[in-house]
């Protein structure tokens, strides 16, 4: 389904209610900064979310159903899996939603979840507010009281960026945690399990300091960084192209931001070393480690006072608003 306002547009894929493409008009140019996967029509088998991976979608619950069991000392490794959590980033990321167009600039989307879990369903509003801004709303209807990791998943393309040509700007603190182990075996640029270090001075795997706000990294790598107090806005500036992408959200609902630095480090199908992008993902979650790690009070994040779940109440609706906007580079 397509929304149009002036020289801007948004394409919504029914699967996941994913933003498959978006064009913004700023500074006299039309730009398409959000990620579009290169394998959509590839005949090889792949899971539904990978097939439809795009520029933004909601994740309820956020994370994987089967977290790795070899986390380092301080992280629990003996947690039971939530039996109803069967899909990476939630049921809604793998199924078609019902889409209803409300005028030329708004889509309303909804999906009903299986009855064996704590979520009744999701509703999502995508509104093309101007040629430079998409406004979004997510509602989660709860069947049971539950603490769940919830996240939003904007992804900005870096396919055309030279190393270090793009810059992350964080509205709040740049306190950063790296993933507790390699995201992909042997493909991390950053040392694992760094906790509460400035984004501008993380340690690389060769022991040198690296400014992880300057992207993309040289070479091929895959890393995850959790910003624990980013202040509700993280931007990617592209001075080489004259624009900046701002992801803004309510950090009383989603206090952290997971940065997914996908730097051509996945060389297996269908990725084939082709993806260079950054996920700027507002979350209440322990990285993407799933329901039980996020609920646990025995993780380093929990012990540091970082909230890693959203609280759902039976019969009530949890709601949050956010936006993706483009402005001329500052």
TrEMBL record:
Biological-process GO terms, alphabetical: carbohydrate metabolic process
GO MF assignments: carbohydrate binding; catalytic activity
Organism superkingdom: Bacteria
Name the record gives this protein: Aldose 1-epimerase
